[in-house]
């Protein structure tokens, strides 16, 4: 508890040094209007409606007093795990899914958020889409889309009801203090994993480029249900080598061509102020890709995942700490393995706007934080952009690392297991040897007594 208080104080002191972060005025009962400058966007993912005792994180969300709430996927869990390995899930019926959404809507603190927040928007990921790791092949995606839009209270005459996919965009704030939120759908049109195929589908790609090219916002937030910058899948070798491994980690890195395409769209259209938000992985993380790696300027990604359940509750503590400390994460600025949600704060008062990216714990205290000046999200003044084959050395991705470096988490983990097994065997053998000695000693004493008699 004391550590949490110290972290909170240090984090807020850091914000103050860059200009105080905007905190919405008025608290409960205040409803943000999209015409006002956006102060705080809060978001989260991986929220299991079946874990009623874990829905208490909504009190922390309410305490953060967001202007806008963003659902970033796995907003309910509509499938059920049948096997750990090979990984197998069973899907629910549409009627069952409807009941699951109603269960989530009936959570008292979430009802209070719906009554007080200015706007609720979002996208889905696999478990609320309908099935673990599912893509365009999912047979009930049209029906699932209507349920998802019902959950977000999208009007029946909205174009989103007729569109194939739940991608959408929103603009907040007046000119000069404007934020554009572009929310992607990484499920409806996605090709199978390991195919290096498509993620968004051609229509969504055209829409995305048009939205970014037409943007006059100072900050352009792109929200993706899965991570974009990192490739944690590559660093969990050999745990993730089998295609049905329960440890495999979905990300844009499974689709390198698509990942490159997003960077090209931003560069080609001269889009500035891009920041990424993501979920899915059951931990919080802040990442930065340096200029020339993905975009012509610094690309920051804020991941928040695990509202009702996180990595710390699913895996033993020691392997998680080994992963956190030793697994290569070339673009990582920090990782948090407990339940969390995320906030994005906008300070418009200084000469240059400042965006504060935060991962917050169950109670709403900041545990990871990064201040980003909008000035650092501008295109280079010399017009120098990314050039194929000329990435700086700092852009080495996980898959490009040599095997001993890339797989050092598993090397340390399995070596530790081997040492533990060796020591355990030595201990057992030592005990057996001692017992054998005691047995022979007892026999010897009995023989000596008989001879004496």
Structure overview:
This protein has 453 residues and is of the alpha/beta class. It has 2 domains: 2-404, Alkaline phosphatase D (PhoD) (Purple Acid Phosphatase, chain A, domain 2, 4-Layer Sandwich), CATH 3.60.21.70; 407-453. It has helices at residues 2-17, 57-63, 94-105, 108-116, 126-129, 141-151, 202-213, 232-235, 256-268, 317-326, 403-406, 408-452; strands spanning 40-44, 68-72, 79-83, 88-91, 119-123, 168-172, 179-183, 219-223, 274-278, 284-289, 299-303, 332-336, 341-347, 354-360, 366-373. Strands 6-7-8-9-11-10-12 form a 7-stranded mixed β-sheet, with helices on one face. Strands 5-2-1-13-14-15 form a 6-stranded mixed β-sheet. It has a two-stranded antiparallel ribbon with strand order 3-4. Helix 3 (94-105) packs parallel to helix 6 (141-151). Mean pLDDT is 88; it is low at 1-29. Keywords: Membrane, Signal, Transmembrane, Transmembrane helix.
Q: What attributes characterize this protein structure?
A:
453 residues, disordered N terminus, signal, Purple Acid Phosphatase, chain A, domain 2, transmembrane, 15 strands, 7-stranded mixed sheet
How would the blueprint of this fold be written?
Blueprint: H1 2-17, E1 40-44, H2 57-63, E2 68-72, E3 79-83, E4 88-91, H3 94-105, H4 108-116, E5 119-123, H5 126-129, H6 141-151, E6 168-172, E7 179-183, H7 202-213, E8 219-223, H8 232-235, H9 256-268, E9 274-278, E10 284-289, E11 299-303, H10 317-326, E12 332-336, E13 341-347, E14 354-360, E15 366-373, H11 403-406, H12 408-452
């Amino acid at each position: 508890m004391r550590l949490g208080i110290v972290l909170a104080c240090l984090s807020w002191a850091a914000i103050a040094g860059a200009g105080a972060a905007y905190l919405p005025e008025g608290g409960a009962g205040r409803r943000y209007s999209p015409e006002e400058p956006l102060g705080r966007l809060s978001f989260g993912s991986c929220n299991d409606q079946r874990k009623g005792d874990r829905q208490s994180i909504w009190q922390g969300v309410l305490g953060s007093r967001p202007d806008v709430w963003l659902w970033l996927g796995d907003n309910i869990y509509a499938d059920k795990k049948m096997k750990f390995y090979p990984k197998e899930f069973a899907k629910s019926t549409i009627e069952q899914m409807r009941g699951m959404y109603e269960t989530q809507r009936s959570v008292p603190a979430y009802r209070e958020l719906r009554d007080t927040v200015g706007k609720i928007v979002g996208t889905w990921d696999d478990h609320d889409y309908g099935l673990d790791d599912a893509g365009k092949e999912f047979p009930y995606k049209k029906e699932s889309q209507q349920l998802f839009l019902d959950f977000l209270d999208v009007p029946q005459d909205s174009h989103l009801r007729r569109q194939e996919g739940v991608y959408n965009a929103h603009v907040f704030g007046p000119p000069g203090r404007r934020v554009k939120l572009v929310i992607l759908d990484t499920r409806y049109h996605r090709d199978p994993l390991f195919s290096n195929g498509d993620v968004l589908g051609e229509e969504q790609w055209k829409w995305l480029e048009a939205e970014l090219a037409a943007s006059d916002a100072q900050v352009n937030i792109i929200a993706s249900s899965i991570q974009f910058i990192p490739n944690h899948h590559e660093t969990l070798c050999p745990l993730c080598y089998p295609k049905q491994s329960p440890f495999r980690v979905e990300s844009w890195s499974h689709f390198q061509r698509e990942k490159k395409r997003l960077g090209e769209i931003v560069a080609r259209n001269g889009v500035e102020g891009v920041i990424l938000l993501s979920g899915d992985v059951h931990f919080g993380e802040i990442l930065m890709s340096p200029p020339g790696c993905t975009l012509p300027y610094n690309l920051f990604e804020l991941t928040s995942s695990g509202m009702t359940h996180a990595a710390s509750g699913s895996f033993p503590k020691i392997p998680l700490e080994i992963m956190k400390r030793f697994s290569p994460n070339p673009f990582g600025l920090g990782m948090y393995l407990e339940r969390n949600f995320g906030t994005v704060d906008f300070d418009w008062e200084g000469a240059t706007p400042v965006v504060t990216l935060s991962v917050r714990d169950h109670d709403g205290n900041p545990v990871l934080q990064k201040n980003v000046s909008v000035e650092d999200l501008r295109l280079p003044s010399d017009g120098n952009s990314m050039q194929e084959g000329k990435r700086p050395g700092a852009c080495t991705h996980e898959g490009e690392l040599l095997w001993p470096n890339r797989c050092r988490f598993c090397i340390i983990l399995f070596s530790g297991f081997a040492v533990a097994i060796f020591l355990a065997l030595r201990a057992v053998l030592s005990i057996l040897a001692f017992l054998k000695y005691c047995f022979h000693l007892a026999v010897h004493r009995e023989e000596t007594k008989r001879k004496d008699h």
